[in-house]
Each structure stands twice: as structure tokens, then as C-alpha cells.
Design brief:
The protein is of the alpha/beta class. The protein is built from 14 helices and 8 strands. The strands form 3 sheets. Strands 6-3-7-8 form a 4-stranded parallel β-sheet, sandwiched between helices. Strands 1-2 form a two-stranded antiparallel ribbon. The chain is globular, with a radius of gyration of 18 Å. It is found in: Cytoplasm.
Length: 295
């Protein structure tokens, strides 16, 4: 029996106070008990913060800039989304178990929900953070096209949910701050989307140093080219067009939409901007984290 439609557009379910897809919540014990390996590299982000971009960069680094090797499969198979479980359709945990080391592992989990084996094994982790207003806009369009999410409602309604953390993977504020604090005690490289946009070469050099890899300049330039937005947008192994339409509808909004900084200016009204900024100050008070809303 074709039961695909009924897995979509369902309400989120709280796991330890964090709203997640119903199917992740139902299979939470599988996620919680996930066994990492010491040479795993975890790529952690809040959704719509450059996850696919940094995943492609790191896969290129792991393959010494060989773009053809990186076309061996779609990005979501090369870098499995660990906690994503949809009964009968997908299971990130099982996919990872079958993978040879060294594995690249993707997660959107806030720091407190990460399986404890990652801390125990002292795995290296790369976290990418993006400014909240651009994330909110990108997430709104993503909610529209990726049907595992509940209906987004209007932009105004969605923005309210985003500000109160009532979206998949919870509060952006808690997420970026939680990982920021954790970097003091573990091997976490904390990168910013805006820095990557501004100077991809500098940020790739940081990644190489963190990963103890040495690549010649011409290879680094190749990585910059192949991981650029325009090239990735045309690459079916990176742009998610291979995902079935019943799951992601690119005619509603492409998975890779604009990939710029400052697009929030095209969406926020003056009133929304003012309300958002006031709320932002309260929620980020006391944190040393600094974001740029444009570059």
C-alpha cells in the first residue's frame, strides 16, 4: 500500500523540549544510541545555514579536489543526515552503519541532543552558523517545498514560529549559542556563512588546518570553483533535484534558492525588522557570538 502521502505535513513532536519531525521522535532511541567512530567528522548546523555547501567542500577536501569522485552519489548519500528517519523511506542511522570510515555525518541537532558517543570519542566537528534573519527567510521557503515539515502558513506566521523556536530543530538562538559554548571543550571548528561568502579561500584554509590536510593552491582553487553556488546549483549530485517531488517540490521553491547574504531585506517589513531586532537583543544577551546580517 502506498502510504507515502501520510508521512508528510504532520505536526512536529517535542523531544526533550525541541520540536522534531514526528518520525525522528518515534525512533529517538535509535538516534540517541548512535555509535560514532573516532574518525567520524560531524557537520553540524541549524537548518538553512550552509549545510550542503560545507558538506560539498569537505567531501572535495577528502577527495583531494577530485570533482568527479564527488559526483559518485548525491550529497545526502555521501554525507548522510544522521537523525533523519522516515519509516520505510529513509534511515540515516542505518545508512551510516553501512559506510566505510572515515565517514562524514550531517546533523541539525542542538548540542544537548547530540548522541553522547560523539563526545566520548572526541570526534572532530565543523559547525556553520548563519545570521538569523537570512535563516528565517530561507527556512520559510524550504518549509514550503520540503513536505516533511508542517505547513508554514504565511510569512508573518512563520516568522513568529521561528522567533519562538516552534520550528523543526527548535530555537535558532539556543542552537547557535549551545554549539558556540561547547567549542571551548571539544574539537569544534565554528565557521560563519557570511565569512565563507566573503572569503571562501580563507575559510577553506581553516578547514584544511583543522582536518590536518595539506593541499596545493591549485587544488584549493578547484575546490572553491566546484563548491561555488552557481556550480553546485547546476550539479544534480549537490542540488537535491534527485529527491522525488512528493518529498521536495522544486517547482514551489528550489532547494538552492539564492545563496546570498542579506536577502532578508527583500522579505522583512520595517515593523517585522524592528520587532525581530528587539527580540534578538534579549535572546542573545550575554553571548559573545557576533553575526553580520549582510556583507
Amino acid at each position: 500500500m502506498d502510504n507515502k502521502p501520510d508521512v508528510y505535513r504532520r505536526e512536529l513532536v517535542d523531544v526533550q523540549g525541541v520540536p522534531l519531525f514526528w518520525s525522528i521522535a518515534e525512533e529517538w532511541s535509535q538516534v540517541e544510541s548512535f555509535e560514532s567512530r573516532p574518525d567520524d567528522l560531524l557537520i553540524a548546523t541549524y537548518p538553512k545555514s550552509g549545510t550542503t555547501w560545507v558538506s560539498e567542500i569537505i567531501d572535495l577536501i577528502y577527495n583531494n579536489g577530485d570533482a568527479e569522485k564527488c559526483k559518485r552519489d548525491a550529497i545526502y548519500n555521501r554525507v548522510p543526515f544522521m537523525e533523519l528517519i522516515i519509516p520505510g523511506i529513509e534511515n540515516g542511522i542505518e545508512d551510516l552503519k553501512k559506510m566505510q570510515s572515515p565517514r562524514l555525518v550531517k546533523t541539525h541537532l542542538p548540542v544537548q541532543l547530540l548522541p553522547s558517543s560523539f563526545w566520548k570519542n572526541n570526534c572532530k566537528m565543523v559547525y556553520v552558523a548563519r545570521n538569523a534573519k537570512d535563516v528565517a527567510v530561507s527556512y520559510y521557503y524550504f518549509y514550503q517545498m520540503a513536505k516533511l515539515h508542517p505547513e508554514p502558513g504565511t510569512w508573518e506566521e512563520f516568522l513568529g514560529k521561528f522567533m519562538t523556536g516552534k520550528v523543526a530543530f527548535g530555537s535558532w538562538y539556543d542552537h547557535v549559542k549551545g554549539w558556540w559554548e561547547k567549542r571551548k571543550d571539544y574539537r569544534i571548528l565554528y565557521l560563519f556563512y557570511e565569512d565563507m561568502k566573503e572569503n571562501p579561500k580563507r575559510e577553506i584554509q581553516k578547514l584544511l588546518k583543522f582536518l590536518d590536510k595539506n593541499l596545493p593552491e591549485e587544488t584549493v582553487n578547484k575546490i572553491i570553483y566546484h563548491s561555488s553556488f552557481d556550480v553546485m546549483k547546476q550539479n544534480p549530485c549537490a542540488n537535491y533535484t534527485t529527491v522525488p517531488t512528493f518529498d521536495m517540490d522544486h517547482s514551489v521553491s528550489p532547494f538552492m534558492r539564492k545563496g546570498i547574504s542579506g536577502d532578508w531585506k527583500n522579505k522583512f517589513t520595517v515593523a517585522q525588522y524592528e520587532q525581530f531586532e528587539e527580540d534578538y537583543k534579549k535572546k542573545m544577551k550575554g553571548s559573545t557570538l557576533q553575526f553580520r546580517s549582510e556583507i
